[in-house]
Amino acid sequence: MAIARPNAKIAVLVPPIINASATIMATVTYQGDADS
Fold first, then answer.
1. What is the 3-state secondary structure (H, E, C) of 6-33?
2. Full-prediction pTM beyond 0.85?
3. What does the angle CA 14 – CA 20 – CA 23 come to, to the nearest 5 degrees?
4. What is the pLDDT of residues 1-36, one digit of tens each?
């Protein structure tokens, strides 16, 4: 269980990080297209 708990925390934290990265990439791409 001691090993499973950190894994559970990672599983909870990773999706928001991926979503945030995708949002940032989409925003940067959109701004880049708008500038050009």
1. HHHHHHHHHHHHHHHHHHHHHHHHHHHH
2. no
3. 140
4. 566 677 778 788 888 899 999 998 888 887 766 665
